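From the pipeline queue, job 12 of 40. The input is one protein chain; the requested action is below.

Action: predict structure.
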Amino acid sequence: QVQLAESGGGLVQAGGSLRLSCAASGGTFSAYNLGWFRQAPGKEREFVARISWFGGRTYYADSVKGRFTISRDNAKNTLYLQMNSLKPEDTAVYYCAACRNKIGVDYYTPETYDYWGQGTQVTVSS
């Protein structure tokens, strides 16, 4: 069982930067695929970025590509999301998520992930 805890959210002006962290405990961190999702008020939870358990391959939503960077530090059991050039439309609660490697699943959907953090609020003012 993996426990996840996000931190680093806050209020920032458009064009600014934030770095989110997700600390993991209770499992073999390096064995998990990890992702960031976000949910704005009245909207469904959406994929932001993910990083594979093997090889650290990264994947991004088109809306954040070139602005956000996902990374992981297996020695520290921590997942990161560096967010630059933030826009008001990036405002949402950001969640980290984890799952073991699975066959024939879509890693871009929330339903694939088994473990979730409590979320951290990111607000971008215009």
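Job complete. The chain has no helices and eleven strands.
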